[in-house]
Amino acid sequence: MKEIPDHLRTGLSVVFIGFNPSPKSGEVGHHYANPRNNFWRILHRSGLTPRLYTAAEDHELLELGYGFTNIVSRPTRTAEEITREEYAQGRQILRDKLELYRPQVACFVGKGVYTEFSRRSHVKWGFQEEPIIEDVREFVAPSSSGLVRMPMEEIISIYKGLFKKSPFDPDAEL
């Protein structure tokens, strides 16, 4: 299975960072393509997108100021299949990407993604107090996997914390 392309550029409001692509994402070449993954529904229901997008439209979110990448680029069925070496290499590659593109916010889609990147064991939901990359705010959100047991409304409320107001409000602020 091939790696899926990042959607990154300078000036983004938020870069969403996952563990790694699912086999379905690797097959179709788009982020969060597994039909059991709730990512696109979460973005829409939290007010981060004006409509419900599909994985095939992932590149279109660049126009909304959103980008996508992963800590590890190799598709796997579960994060448990990722090796320690892949994480070590992925941490440095991700750090380089964040330093190069400098999004306003790096949103880690899952506490595990952030703990692998930061090497911190105690992490809270939302904005982190001590970012690793200077001038890039770090936000930890629940995983969008369909296997997550947290109620959907709670997940959505955490994602809403990315903005003080809906991003489609002209007075919205990160």
In a few lines, what is going on in this structure?
It contains five helices and five strands; from the N terminus they run βααβαβαββα. The protein has helices at about 25-30, 40-45, 85-100, 110-120, 150-160, and strands spanning about 15-20, 65-70, 105-110, 125, 135-140. Keywords: DNA damage, DNA repair, Hydrolase.
Write out key terms for the chains shown.
single chain; 174 residues; alpha/beta; Uracil-DNA Glycosylase, subunit E; 5-stranded mixed β-sheet
Protein described:
The model has no long low-confidence stretch (mean pLDDT 91). The chain starts with 13 loop residues before the first strand and ends in a 14-residue tail after the last helix. The protein has one domain: Uracil-DNA Glycosylase, subunit E (3-Layer(aba) Sandwich), CATH 3.40.470.10. It has a five-stranded mixed β-sheet. The protein is globular, with a radius of gyration of 15 Å. It is built from five helices and five strands. The protein has 174 residues and is an alpha/beta fold.
